[in-house]
Amino acid sequence: MDRGRRVDAASLVVLRVAIGSLLFASAVRFGARGWIDELLLAPSFHFHYWGFAWVGEPAPWLAHALFVVLAGSGLALAAGLATRLSAGLALLSFAWIELIDLTYYLNHYYFLTCLLATFVLVPPRPEADGLVPVWKLWLVRTQVGLVYVLAGVAKLGSDWLLHAQPLDIWLARHADLPGIGRWITEPWLAYAAAWTGAAFDLLVVPALLWPRTRVWAYAAVVGFHVATGLLFPIGMFPWFMIAGATIFFAPQWPRVWLAKRSPFDRPHPVNPPIEALLGGLAAALIVVQLALPWRMLIYPGSTLWHEQGARYGYRVMLVEKAGLVEYRVHDRSTGRHWRVDPADELTALQTRMLSSQPDMILQYAHHLAERLEHELPGSAIEVRVDAFVSLHGRPHRRLIDPEVDLVGEHDGLAPKPWILAGPEQPPP
Amino acid sequence: MNRMKTVGVAGVLVVGALGVGVACPEAAPDHRAEVVANVAQTVAVDLDQALVNAGALREAIGELCAQPDPTTLDGAQQAWMDLRAPWKRALALPFGPIVDDGFDGAIDFWPARPTSIEGALAGGASSQADLDALGVASKGMPAIEYLLWDPLGSDPALLALYTAAEGPQRCAHVGLLAADVELRLTELDTAWGGFAEQFEQAGSSELFPTLARAIDSLLNAMIAGLHDIDDPKLLAPLGQAVGVAQPDLVESRFSDRSLLDARDGLAGFATAYLGSESAPGLTLVVASESGEVDRRVRAALAAAEQALADVPEPLRTAIVDSPELVTAAEQAVHELRTVLTTDVASLLGVTVSLSDNDGD
Questions:
Q1: Nearest to residue A307, comparing CAs of A401, A234, A399?
Q2: Sign of CA dihedral A224, A228, A231, A237
Q3: Spatial separation of the C-alpha atoms in residues A186 and B23, rounded to whole Å
Q4: For helices B32-66 and B211-228, angle between their N-to-C axes, nearest 10 degrees
Q5: Stated pTM of the model
Q6: Would you call B346 and A181 a contact, using CB atoms and an 8 Å cutoff?
Q7: Is A29 touching B (CB cutoff 8 A)?
Q8: What is the DSSP letter of A347?
Q9: Tell me: the pLDDT tens digits for B37-85?
Q10: Closest chain A residue to B350, measured at CA
């Protein structure tokens, strides 16, 4: 790549317009469905991200204001108004919303956060001459492309490739679909979908970049994301990726219908040394994203089971687990024992996400101990847990050592010895 | 050369496809629609029977009031007992209007609160409108139970209350409560009809646009029904949190029908899961996906039934005299719930780790 080469910024402009518009739509959709109150304000307890316990629940007015800012900055980003500032406001509001509760962690939220950060560092707009240095285009392409590649790498496991799980379970739920329903439960289809899905993720980026395969590859992108969007409740994710994949087209591809120096282009003069510095930061962000998934290698056992190192890895649609968690409380001051059902305090969604994620189980144990010691002055609370999980239809097993007082355990990057080994037998 | 390459690649693909086809087991038949229809019908039968029995209870209370004597009191008490069985079986699946419209609380709020019930009695409610103004703790089946059994004395002592000067007021009140239960069950029966229609037409109905949604609701209801047995009925009265048994938390503690209530609840679960030969339950769906998981559920169900049967009557004394047997029963029901919540849910993808507000 000739780093000094300058290319048309049109594909970046189109990506910016699409992402800004989708951010606006996402913010409006979130509010219209009542999720601001239901998910962010109603819960009496929020699970915090590791290292971000200081991000508390916002006041109701602030929670709504964050979505207004997100919607407004999304529109401004789409229009190209103060691109860097609008991307920054979108990043700030989006990340703030995301950090309120770990329950709602999603790969595509993480992706959008990183993409918006890239937009702040490398604004998707033409420079004064209507062009951009090619390295800017490649930074954004890499940011989008790494999602597919890492998602593909994550699929290279035995459950996915040898047992077609969890696709087999998920597809069986759609056996009543008109027309294709009778085929969808055919086991060979789950295998075909699993292998095709892995191949798609691993190959789609080069296929989109190569002009001879581009049209077919993009048709596959649209077909893949529309199909998964129809079959699974994955919200706005398909639309972000369908829009994102256009960045692999030729830089000038929109010029067929987008005039040079159109109102969406909004060329902006730049200071090259500063741009290069910020570009370096964007590259560093990409390196971090590429490195983070491999931290799972320091944790023994299956990541599908213990989930250590699973977040920030673009491990998309890989696991189907069902769990049941109940806490056993012991008050050393009175010698009493009793059980606590987390569903008594948590929302249904929080309970469901907690039921199979050890760090959330630990976090709630700490909260429970604090709460009970506050409610029962003089008490000395120990919290143990009965956590049973079934992974991909296997017989349930204990996830957490029931003898360990979780109050004495701390979250961190080190392997958690109180997580028990996962099942070794294959799924049924 | 290119042609040979094409033929070679095509050959590999065909052989690969055949290999996958041969290696894979056959697709399991989809029994979900049949199971959903069977379960909806089962609940409807129990609710119909409960409604009939509620009418019988109202009539029996009328006979008691017309002539308060041991025979009519026995008749009223037996009518109350008879109403519990179909109601508790239906309540094993707390979903649809049973919970969404609050019928579970309106008909059967427990543990009974004597002060609330006595307060309503002293307040002289004399019409349905008066009853409607009262909280659920003052009425429903537990309030009728309290008024038909003497919590402290015996049947003669209770009959004395019905023949005393305030007897007519007591009679009128308990009659009103019975009529209210019958009215609520009539409303529930109607509401269930509309819900069941949507449930049975899962896949094309507004409430259940997919069969998967109906199975999700069914399984979650079965889990909730089991939770209602192991936690409030068995665990809470053991009083672990306070270190001493809590007889006041026992369901149906005046009639000592507590264990039978629990067994009826488990019977309702068993009917939904096992069904009958002509109308199978969820077992049909589970077994078609995994015989092993189905066997696990059946074994856990049998163990729970046995453990409940092992608890000596009545529960209010068993929690003091035989807490280990009550604990064993609670743990057995809990284990059944665990198998449903983990193995079955995972097998059927009921707790799909994606939801409408996420998107992986």
A1: A399
A2: negative
A3: 12
A4: 40
A5: 0.88
A6: no
A7: no
A8: -
A9: 999 999 999 999 999 999 999 999 999 999 999 999 999 999 999 999 9
A10: A322
